[in-house]
Design a protein that fits this description.
Largest sheet: 3 strands, antiparallel
Order of helices and strands: HEHHEEH
Helix content: 40-55%
Strand order of the largest sheet: 1-3-2
Number of strands: 3
Shape: globular
Number of helices: 4
Strand content: 5-15%
């Protein structure tokens, strides 16, 4: 696996874990800030790309406001992936909780 792919998978995991920690939903701005807290300073466009990909995998549901702003809500499947109880190719598997 390339470093670029590993980083992409980690960013998707950070989004899922952030949604779980935020009470199961958050807007794209908050998720962008969460990614930055974990060392992923990325463009808002890339945050949206990840959200669209996660929606295609049925890991999140997205509400799209009229201005294009996105609000993501984690699904049960997404929560299982965030907690390491399920595995999806393209999302980093979290380390076990100790």
């Amino acid at each position: 696996m390339s470093l670029k792919e590993l980083i992409k998978q980690d960013q998707r995991l950070v989004i899922l874990r952030s949604l779980a920690d935020a009470g199961y939903d958050a807007n794209e701005s908050i998720l962008d800030d969460c990614l930055a807290l974990y060392g992923h300073k990325i463009s808002r466009d890339l945050v949206r790309t990840h959200l669209n990909w996660l929606e295609e995998q049925d890991l999140v549901q997205i509400e799209r406001l009229q201005n294009g702003f996105m609000i993501a809500k984690i699904t049960q499947r997404g929560l299982d992936v965030a907690n390491g109880e399920a595995v999806v190719d393209g999302v980093k598997k979290p380390l076990p909780k100790i």
